[in-house]
């Protein structure tokens, strides 16, 4: 009886690990969600964004404006936000179970019906892999000042 509990716990942990890896490996075998997000934004592909974003998705724009998934997709569909350039580098990743945090620097240039800072940004993206595929839960763009320290992620906020 004493061996059954540790064995069951080990088995449960193994099952959780395998199912987590299946979700991540399936999602990344096709393409990384960060790359898919950038591509869909540049193409204004609302259908791809709808599939890629979690139902509880939040977008925090470079002007601090916060939108949920529904309003974010409407903004893209109605061409109230048109992305001209989005490229991210220096990406760093951290995971905790099925949640993944990706941070980095990049250039974001867009036209919007509200004032929107463009240029060098600090990007933060959170994705969740509790379902069959990885979905993006949060994207935040923060305008930063280009400095030497910004190369390693220690950017000064503009």
TrEMBL record:
Write the record's keywords in alphabetical order, separated by commas. Answer: Signal
Phosphoprotein recorded as keyword: no
Q: Please name the Gene3D superfamilies in this protein's record.
A: 3.10.450.50
Read off the InterPro entries from this record.
Answer: DUF4440, NTF2-like_dom_sf
Tell me which stretches of the chain form a coiled coil: none
Tell me the Pfam families matching this sequence.
DUF4440 (PF14534)
The protein depicted here goes by the name Nuclear transport factor 2 family protein
Specify the DUF4440 domain's residue ranges.
Answer: 37-111
Signal peptide from the UniProt entry: 1-17
